[in-house]
Specification:
Layout: H1 4-25, E1 39-41, E2 50-52, H2 54-57, H3 59-62, H4 66-75, E3 84-90, E4 94-99, H5 101-114
Helix pairs in contact: 1-4
Length: 137
């Protein structure tokens, strides 16, 4: 079974990279900066499904306000043929990504396909695990 969360995270990374290239080609952001940042699963669903700190982390290198960087990147994002329906700038410069219905459709198909094996893993097969309960009393 494929890791659909990792696929979505990588797709968000590509969207940011492509948007940066287009924004720099249109002189909205300086070119030649290798963007770095994290894309993580959002802790609060109101903030989207994934959140990126790329605009915040690259503000100094891009010599611009993080919020303006986020807005410039969003301007050049195309969500067609991606797992995302949209993204928005939030707070001081986060970019929040919202998964599309097609992503949820893929997840449900994966669950049905895996059947009773859904959620199972062989990652620790053959390994011994020791669980201890320590009481202070």
């Amino acid at each position: 079974m494929s890791n659909l969360n990792e696929i979505a995270r990588l797709e968000a990374e590509k969207l940011i990279e492509k948007a940066y290239v287009l924004a720099s080609e249109n002189s909205e952001l300086p070119s030649g900066v290798r963007l770095s940042g994290k894309i993580e699963i959002s802790k609060d669903a109101q903030n989207g499904d994934f959140a990126s700190n790329h605009a915040l982390g690259n503000a100094k290198a891009l010599k611009s306000n993080p919020r303006k960087i986020a807005e410039s990147l969003l301007k050049y994002m195309n969500f067609e043929n991606t797992v995302f329906s949209r993204a928005e700038a939030a707070g001081p410069g986060f970019i929040n990504f919202f998964l599309s219905e097609s992503w949820y459709d893929k997840v449900l198909k994966e669950i049905i396909k895996a059947g009773e094996n859904y959620g199972g893993s062989d990652a620790l097969k053959g390994e011994s695990i020791l669980l201890e309960f320590v009481s202070a009393n």
